[in-house]
Amino acid sequence: MLRVPFADLYAVLEKTMSRLGLAPEAAQLSARLFAETTRDGVYSHGLNRFPRFEAMVANGSIDVNARPTCAATFGSVERWNGNRGVGNVNAYLAMQHTIELARKNGIGAVALANTNHWMRGGAFGWQAVEEGMFAMCWSNTLANLPAWGASVPTVGNNPLVIAVPRAQGHHVVIDMAMSQFSYGALASYAKRGQPLPVPGGFDAEGHLTTDAAAIEASQRALPIGYWKGSGLSLVLDMIAAMLSGGLATHQLPLEPTLEAGQSQIFLAIDPANLASAAELNHIADGIVEHLHHAKPANPNEPVRYPGEQTLHLRKENLRLGVPVDPEIWGRISAS
Amino acid sequence: MLRVPFADLYAVLEKTMSRLGLAPEAAQLSARLFAETTRDGVYSHGLNRFPRFEAMVANGSIDVNARPTCAATFGSVERWNGNRGVGNVNAYLAMQHTIELARKNGIGAVALANTNHWMRGGAFGWQAVEEGMFAMCWSNTLANLPAWGASVPTVGNNPLVIAVPRAQGHHVVIDMAMSQFSYGALASYAKRGQPLPVPGGFDAEGHLTTDAAAIEASQRALPIGYWKGSGLSLVLDMIAAMLSGGLATHQLPLEPTLEAGQSQIFLAIDPANLASAAELNHIADGIVEHLHHAKPANPNEPVRYPGEQTLHLRKENLRLGVPVDPEIWGRISAS
User: Tell me, what's the pLDDT at B335?
Assistant: First the structure.
């Protein structure tokens, strides 16, 4: 495994972003978000995703010069147009504005239409908790998951992020797609010939299976909780498309390098004027301590909260260097 | 099966509520919510749940005279104290106020502490969509679900409701607990000796199983999506307890008839000033039509959206009479 210093990863990405045509501020922001994603161990949506990003700039799906604009506003809710700009920049700016709305009115929401893949959704949860906010955000995606009872992809895996602020950076951030396993995860189990740890979809005969290759073949991956995740995915798509006035899952191109025009929701609540930091931390610590003291099923695997692993990986990767794919790194660091 | 006219069910419940000590307005509201729950086919949380409600009034867990009070307010977010009042009345009033906040500021939220079981959470989603609002609400519960990696109940099944308004009453409302199956559902599969349709928990040896009785014995029911639902349950509990200043799951009594003091979140967004009704309906109809046209896995079972079944059952139960448990009905209608 090749590891490189975080600063080098950021610098190379920033230079590459500038070369792709992003203005300095946007290049810095987008590069930082890509680099931090790899630093935090979300390898699928950091540097490893960068080649697809480049391809989508090249094929015109992403407009590197576009910035989001406000389309309508009422009280503490706004509708924005992403103008097909860079997905992680659009999402960051949308969450930043959502935080400002929450700071002013206790709560705020931005519905963002016509944007692009935000890469790691969790980034915008971390962005909010670092400002002391509770936050929620989600994106629709192309149809990659059969709705419950359907035999063909109908709904998106629409990632949902919920973030809870805690003291000293020990935030709780869940970043989950509505599919039990991503196609990336299925592919890597199939490649290793390993069974999935739990059923991940249906085989061609319609039986639940842990055989990743069979699920890739049937295209019938499983929503989390079967009918429940299917319904959840549908309502997230409806809220995002209706409030933003943007595209719904069924309207997004099915070819991944053309998947542009997503609709997203950003929501934040500022607790600062409702409760003291001491009260909030006391409640949060009580919940986390209770979780940590739960008897583990496997004595060697203590129970963890969502995001707990992130801090460990972040520390490790900052110390040892951030793991990068040698081929991708070699190419972009040489150019 | 015994069926009774909806008006009779309501009238008997209203009389019984008055006898339990509820003031007229609260008795009417609570009775209506109980009756509508059975009317809509959510039998577990309507009349069938009423004996437990009576027991909790009798044992002092529910204070029939208490009304919720505002504890803190900032902009469009408020913190309320439910004062251990009647759960469905508290939740209805909290959502009503949330809707008023959203009407004024585009979005609003109420965090309600110290309340009681809201019975059917979906009721408050329907309440909001009937006012043209998008809504989300959830409640924490006693610990009835092992967190992922834990061998003992740690988190609640914390029901989550998300509601999307549509024209002509065809709202989309999802009302889902974080457990794959409720203990009520497990009990009825076990009683019939039927396997669950999908794995619902672990047996005593820690293997995934569709054997409901084995799961009842191990107390290791499954969160939806395994680790995902476990994390989701945790963050819902954290937000509810922290924002409301109320109890968290680990602090709620484990004995069901003493389960009092829940924390809940209500959230609404008013789209009326951001988009025309025509635009909103056009987007929603497009999504629902696409879902309805998806190729079903079983040709005899068309794909449905969450809440679609509710309208069918409601119509049927209004036409044929509302199904009631003869023993419970006999007792309360005679008293």
Answer: 80
> Hey, is the C-beta of B254 within 8 angstroms of any chain A C-beta?
no
Residues of chain A in contact with residue B296, where contact means CB-CB under 8 angstroms, are 149-151
CA distances from A40 to A36, A179, A316 (A): 6, 22, 9
Domains A66-179+224-269 and A180-222 share a fold: no
How many other C-beta atoms can be found within 10 angstroms of the C-beta atom of residue B54? 18
Closest CB to B245 among A270, A275, A295: A275
Residues of chain B in contact with residue A263, where contact means CB-CB under 8 angstroms, are none
Contacting residues for B277 by C-beta, under 8 A, at least 6 apart: B167
Q: What is the DSSP letter of B221?
A: B
Q: Which fold has domain A66-179+224-269?
A: Ribosomal Protein S8; Chain: A, domain 1 (3.30.1370)
Domain range summary for chain A, segments of one domain joined by +: 66-179+224-269, 180-222
Q: Is the pLDDT of residue A1 over 90?
A: no
Rounded to two decimals, the pTM is 0.98
pLDDT tens per residue, range A199-252: 999 999 999 999 999 999 999 999 999 999 999 999 999 999 999 999 999 999
One of B45, B97, B117, B171 is an active-site residue; which one?
B45
CATH number of A180-222: 3.30.60.50
Model confidence pLDDT, tens digit, residues B238-272:
999 999 999 999 999 999 899 999 999 999 999 99
